[in-house]
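lol so apparently i was supposed to do this last week
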Amino acid sequence: MPEETPSTNPFQATSSKRKVKDRIGTVIFACFTYFVLACALFIFGKITYDGAPVLFTSEAPFINTKFFTESPQTLVEFTNGAGELIRMDQTDFTVFKEENPDVTINDEHTFSYSGGGIAGPLVGTALLVLVCMVVSLFIGVAAAIYLSEYAKKGKLVSAIRLAIMNLAGVPSIVYGLFGFAFFCLAPWFPVFTYEVNAETTIGAFKIPLTDGYLSFQGWGNSLLAGGLTLAVMALPVIIAACEESLKAVPGGFREASLALGATRWQCIRTAVLPYAAPGILTASVLGVTRVAGETAPIMFTAAVADKAKMPWQDAQGSGVFWFSDMLTQSVQALPYHIYTVSARLPAHEAINDMRYGSVFVFLILVVGFAMTSVVLRARYRNKLKW
Amino acid sequence: MNDSSSTLDSADAPEVASNEPIISIDNLSFSYDLGSTNTLRDISLEIPAGKVTAFIGPSGCGKSTLLRCLNRMNDLVDTAKVTGGSISILGQDINAPDVEAIELRKHVGMVFQKYNPFPKSIYENVAYGLRVQGIKNKSVLDQAVEESLQKSALWDEVKDRLDSSALGLSGGQQQRLCIARAIAVKPQIVLMDEPCSALDPIATARIEELIAELQEDFTIVIVTHNMQQATRVSNRTAFFYLGELIEYDDTSKIFGNPTRKQTEDYVSGRFG
Ligand SMILES: Nc1ncnc2c1ncn2[C@@H]1O[C@H](COP(=O)(O)OP(=O)(O)OP(=O)(O)O)[C@@H](O)[C@H]1O
Ligand SMILES: [Mg+2]
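anyway here it is w/ magnesium ion bound
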């Protein structure tokens, strides 16, 4: 150790006032940061604390399977002769009354959508996300390829980019209304159907060899309209992410490919897209996850609070008619279900299980998807080094 | 296309008599900004077939630009434009409206400064050019891959791992793979833009050997910053300065007894 003589230390602190100020600044900034952290922790903590007991049980499968396999139904609450408070689903209650005709039932209350499980909303949301993903990926990738690979740099492309960026700032309720007007009401979208709706304006055309029609009558409140509305909403994010992924592919690949006599499209297909695909996919999952949580866009276009059957069970006909009919079914959806049980029903303790259970499942799903895509992206970034 | 004047469209382009130039550039002017400023000005030069021609000159003088004019890679720059003169390859004006850049590039291959193999297998890299031309026959591909790798002196090193990733090769091997990839489509001309600038001396020496061997089958145009390399590999040398061709002659003449003062200053290392 060299000798230390404090007097010769050139880095000796000079003013303690500056130090104190610096210290205070640090503490203030830290406080704000921890405030954000505290908010996040509170949200997650509260939802987990109240929601987890709904999903997990202390006995054998440890999971409340009914919550995932049954659709929402009415919950009945009553007090029996012994003064015990009992809650059961409407269907169970009917059976219970038949089996025990002389049981005393006092203070009977019913709560809509608060019993059963969330199978319908889960399936509906999954289908909406699927439609949204397929459509937005297709359009988004095509648009991104055009913008970053084909279009000449100029005013027009900048204007298009700006317009796309602005789309990202449009409030979700506006997308909902747009989707309602454009996909649900407007008569220019065709469906395959056996029964022609009176709304049809352009007309319905009989399809030879079948009893069905191709009818231009709009899609109504439907899976397709909702999925497309979500897709339009996800597009700005997906286009931006795709462009970024395409830009990340080294220019050398394009040059090498073109210099070997590849056409523009061959070059993109074989020397650009394969290396951009992981980035495109993961970023798109992230974009779609974000819109999948939105209520406003599907409120007018696809979602209903109550629906007994799954869309494929309700669909009529076979083949393309069945498919078309399934896509034009309205569906339940998780965000809308949460909105219904939380905002449209009066506050009551009996509904809390459904509320927190649904929110907890939703949170796990969204966080799970987001995490997966982030992890995947990080992994691909590390793997693909060139 | 059935236009007989457009020789570049036929896969078996005619052999060029050895005394005739394979590339002739006539008063070429070229601009990157639609003609506001000319990056290349009034360049005239004839490149003989079956020889190695080197382009030298200080950074930014337009060597790469001229090279990329020869296979119309500059088409990728939206605002690039040939503002005057013409380039003929195999007797055909390559900027004529009936010339397809894609067809031209099958005859004029290119190797880039930064080696850029695709992150595919070694085999797929070499077969790439043939695949984009629609060749699917496995035995044709196999043969072309082997032949190209032989010619680029890489076969013995990679024959046991054709299916492993090209990115696992050393830098020098990757650059030789890029050369193999370029010659697999059997171009008549191979353009090389500073092919050794990212390589160490030993890898550089191997590429130089390779260029000497390839000279038998291809006409090679190489851009280099390395004077010794130009003297070692090339028969003819063109010296450029600020977008103009200053002097073009046999390599021995350019380095031994140049006519112009600027050339002498440059090759002797007094500027540049
Ligand atoms: N894509 C481009 N767009 C606009 N200007 C360009 C482009 N590429 C090159 N230039 C300009 O053209 C001039 C010539 O560039 P070029 O790359 O041909 O030089 P070079 O002789 O190859 O230089 P180096 O030895 O450094 O590679 C430079 O001034 C450069 O800035
Ligand atoms: Mg250059």
